Description:
Helix content: 25-40%
Order of helices and strands: HHEHEHEHEHEHHEEE
Strand order of the largest sheet: 3-2-1-4-5-8-6-7
CATH class: Alpha Beta
Distance between the termini: 32 Å
Number of strands: 8
Radius of gyration: 17 Å
Amino acid sequence: MTGAPDTTLDPEEVARFARLAGQWWDGNGPFRQLHRINPVRLTYIRDQLCQAFGRDLTAAASLAGLSVLDIGCGGGLVSEPLARLGAEVTGIDPAPETIEAAKAHAQGARVDVTYKVATAEEVAGAGARFDTVLLLEVVEHVPDVPAFLARVAPLLKPGGIMILSTLNRTLKAYALAIIGAEFILRWLPVGTHLWQRFVKPEELEAALRIAGLTLTDTRGLLYDPLADEWHLGQDTDVNYFATAARLPST
């Protein structure tokens, strides 16, 4: 009889992104759409953090002193801007190539971010706790979302929040996020996503609840083809954000 695995990662997913490590900051490369949606992602994250921790949205350092763990940080597209807002950011990724790219860019940009080659399970096992945990475009790449969230949830301090972004498992998402984005528009490399790993909002809420977290917000991330712009909205049929809180008493 064997114990539980040390990680819920899919090694093939890790290797796929490691091969692209040198292109994270190329705004016209394979991560172009992440660059395009980044302003909307950052607005959502900042607003949720300011609301949860009573911060002034208009302050230049609105996130000063808040500890943030960016799981699957990639090249640091979100880690760096949050650090500029004053957050104490730790970015982790299991691929050494990716972390080296993130470190190099942060050094060149003179932004203070702590980057580590690590899995969420390793950080949790070390007893680290954070005000905020980010899982952006992560859960659709893990084989077992409930098991993964159960291991990640202890990383949150009581009163802390987790912010996620992912894809809904609908036919509309299959048509737009895979057929459209990968095969027709070539926004993403073919094979970036597996539709069967997309997560319905009600499934995500159930997994979060089992992990001891309470869903507090769900918001859609929408693309307007006429304006060629991304914005927040109520439609969660394709891309969506979710925020969950750990109650202060837990």
